[in-house]
Design brief:
Layout lengths: L2 H14 L55 H13 L7 E8 L2 E8 L2 E10 L2 E8 L6 H7 L3 H15 L4 H8 L5 E2 L6
Antiparallel strand pairs: 1-2, 2-3, 3-4, 4-5
Helix pairs in contact: 3-4
Length: 187
């Protein structure tokens, strides 16, 4: 690993550590196929250098957004914007695929991108984790904890939605390096 991604990863951890004590330990399942992206089997909270510009200290599922009266897509959009959007670094949200109580959504911000895996709870929608290409794979989604049928439907719908996007946009979503846990209690 060269020093720039390592420094970005350390900066990300320094920013997120106060908000997410769970970053200090690895208790999460790894997506199948994650090793195919050269991140290693033990890399649950990986370098996340693509995510470094994405954090602004608001990570966590307790971001106060009144989701009452909002559709699933509107609620997911509101949560992501409340957590990550800033005037100097606007968040662009890609297709949002909702299947039951699970959702995957692409995003890009400041020349970086990735995907968020979300789950709906009694409190509303919350982000479980951010990752890259692994969140396109039904087997990876099932390994994380999405029920198999929902994982397959989500992967199929995501592929169809992203097929309508420019290849550079999909490549940006795929480029997220590693996995960053946002709320491990959702699965």
């Amino acid at each position: 690993m060269n020093s720039l991604p390592r420094l970005a990863a350390l900066a990300l951890l320094a920013i997120l550590a106060p908000a997410l004590p769970s970053l200090a330990h690895d208790t999460t399942p790894k997506p199948a196929g994650h090793d195919a992206h050269a991140h290693g089997a033990g890399d649950a909270h990986a370098s996340g250098d693509a995510h470094a510009g994405h954090g602004n200290g608001h990570h966590g599922s307790d971001t106060a957004v009144d989701q009452s009266g909002l559709s699933d897509v509107e609620a997911i959009t509101a949560i992501k914007l409340a957590m990550f959007d800033t005037p100097e670094n606007p968040l662009h949200i890609g297709p949002i695929i909702v299947v039951g109580d699970y959702a995957v959504s692409g995003w890009d911000q400041g020349g970086m991108g990735g995907r968020a895996l979300m789950r709906k709870t009694a409190k509303g929608w919350a982000i479980h984790l951010c990752a890259g290409a692994g969140l396109k794979d039904a087997a990876a989604l099932a390994e994380i904890g999405v029920p198999e049928h929902e994982a397959l439907q989500m992967a199929t719908e995501l592929a169809a939605a992203e097929a309508q996007l420019p290849p550079e946009t999909v490549a940006l979503y795929d480029s997220f390096d590693g996995t960053v846990m946002v709320d491990e209690t959702l699965f």
